[in-house]
Write a structure and sequence with these properties.
Blueprint lengths: L4 H11 L4 E5 L5 H7 L8 E6 L3 H6 L5 H7 L4 H15 L3 E7 L15 E7 L2 E7 L5 H20 L1
Parallel strand pairs: 1-2, 1-3
Antiparallel strand pairs: 3-4, 4-5
Helix pairs in contact: 1-6
Length: about 160
C-alpha cells in the first residue's frame, strides 16, 4: 500500500526528530488539514498561521512591510519571509508557506489568477516554487497543497 504524501512526511519528521509549522494565505489552512489528518501528527506538527490579510503577515509572521510594498503579497520574497516567520514564531525546524491568487478574481495582468508562490524551509535551507496555471479556484488550492507537500518532502528527504 502506498503511503499518502502527508504520511511519508510525518514518518520522516518523526524519524529525524523535526517539527513543522505552516504559514498559509491562499490555501486557507488546507495544508494544515492534510498534515493533521494523520494520527500522531501532534508529535511533529506545531501549528499554522493563516495569514490571509497582509496585516497578519506583518504582525504575526514578521513579513517586512517593505517586502509587501516592493514585491507584493504574491511573491517569492514574501513566502520566504512567511516560512521563516512561521519557523521563528512557532519554534519549528521546518515550515511551508503559500501566497497566491486562487481566483477567479483578484488577479492582475502581471499576476493573473493561478499565480501562486510556495516556500519550504528546513533549518537554514529554503526552496521556492512558482505556480502559474489557473485551473479554477478549488483546483488551484488543491494543486498548491499538493505542490507544497512535495516541496517539503524534497527538502527534508
Amino acid at each position: 500500500m502506498d503511503l499518502k504524501i502527508e504520511e511519508t512526511i510525518g514518518h520522516i519528521l518523526k524519524e529525524k526528530n523535526l517539527t513543522l509549522s505552516t504559514a498559509e494565505s491562499c490555501t486557507g489552512g488546507n495544508i494544515a488539514a492534510r498534515i493533521t489528518s494523520i494520527s500522531g501528527s501532534s508529535e511533529y506538527y506545531k501549528g499554522s498561521i493563516i495569514a490571509y490579510d497582509n496585516a497578519v503577515k506583518t504582525t504575526l509572521l514578521k513579513v517586512s512591510p517593505d517586502t509587501l510594498e516592493q514585491y507584493g503579497a504574491v511573491s517569492r520574497e514574501t513566502v520566504i519571509e512567511m516560512a521563516k516567520g512561521a519557523m521563528s514564531m512557532l519554534k519549528t525546524t521546518c515550515a511551508v508557506a503559500t501566497s497566491g491568487i486562487a481566483g477567479p478574481g483578484g488577479g492582475t495582468p502581471a499576476k493573473p489568477a493561478g499565480t501562486i508562490w510556495i516556500a519550504a524551509a528546513f533549518k537554514n535551507e529554503l526552496i521556492t516554487l512558482k505556480l502559474e496555471e489557473d485551473r479554477g479556484r478549488a483546483a488551484n488550492i488543491e494543486n498548491t497543497v499538493h505542490e507544497a507537500l512535495n516541496l517539503l518532502l524534497k527538502l527534508i528527504k
